[in-house]
Amino acid sequence: MSNLRARVNICVLRYLSTLWRSSNPMQNSSFKRSVRAVSALVLLLACAVSASAQLGGLGGLGDKLKKKAPNLLGDKQPITTSLSDAKWGDPSKDGITPREASRSLMTLQRTPNGGFVLQPGYYQMQTQSYCLKAGTHGPGEGDGYLYAPPKGPAEDAVMTIVRNSVNRPEIPQQRIQQLLWAIIARAKFEDLTSELKATASQLLTPRQLTSLNRSALDVLQGNALTDALGGVPEPLRQIAQAEAQLRRMLTTPGASFAEMERVAVLSGAAPLGPGSRDVPSGRWSAHPDGYFVRYIPSGYSSTRVEVWVPQGSPSVGKEYDPAAHIAVPGNTARQRLIQSGRAQQGR
Fold first, then answer.
1. Which of these, 337, 295, 343, lies nearest to 158 by C-alpha position?
2. ∠ at Cα 123 (129, 306), nearest 5°?
3. Residue 324 to residue 242: CA distance in whole angstroms
4. What's the pLDDT tens digit per position in 146-169?
5. Is the distance from CB of 88 to CB of 146 less than 8 angstroms?
6. pTM of the model
7. CA–CA distance, 228 with 219 (Å, rounded to integer)
């Protein structure tokens, strides 16, 4: 591409040099007309070169046009947090329960983010948690979960929804889950049902909504969906299919939450996913801020979170922000669960 630009510049300079030598350029009207014509040509070629560069050249554009179906997995998953990001599991604390009497996290001072200002002690809270990996199995008995931070292009939007939901207790948990499914399924927020769009506008900024619309994928079904899934291996195929179904359901009036849940959260015995690790239930994670945390889910929508702040810990006075915590299962075939600062009602 740089060679093409160079050849254009050389040709233009040679042509103008010839005109200059053959006439008085300041008085020759033909010279002026030639300059204007050449300028227009240069501008046209520059635009063509720039457009070609942005499209990856005609060969790249042709390759894209020859694709039979869109990439349902997208360029990058909105939330990429995986088991490899859960680096803080502490096997040396397996089976240990702090000697201090447990207290509710709700006894601690709250932060504007919906978090908690940590003090020495042992705390528990049954929280509202949310599925962040459609097309996988919910928590199972005996499965262990480890701490990992949210990562990916949509991490800001996901954490904003969970944080802002703390101060909007009137918004049902199911509605918040639908918004999170809309993000991980890359649904077009402008096409969501009016009820979900209203909730999104309460929890997200206009800039975040615009960004989510730009990363959205098309709704496919029937033969188009089958063609698009062709060649996608399991378990990615299962996840891509669930996300495609959720995109359709979230933008089509009449789909119930129970129907979406059946698509997003698989029932039955979960296989052992690729890259899984043996993580026993109740394993502590040593958070980088200096406290310990563990997650014991009872279904994907409710998790008992335990936080242990030893005496003299550097975490005293720091914030425990649930929205910055994803509970990652040792079995990769199960759900990732983001935590919230909303207590589970009746628990």
1. 337
2. 45
3. 25
4. 999 999 999 999 999 999 999 999
5. yes
6. 0.76
7. 11
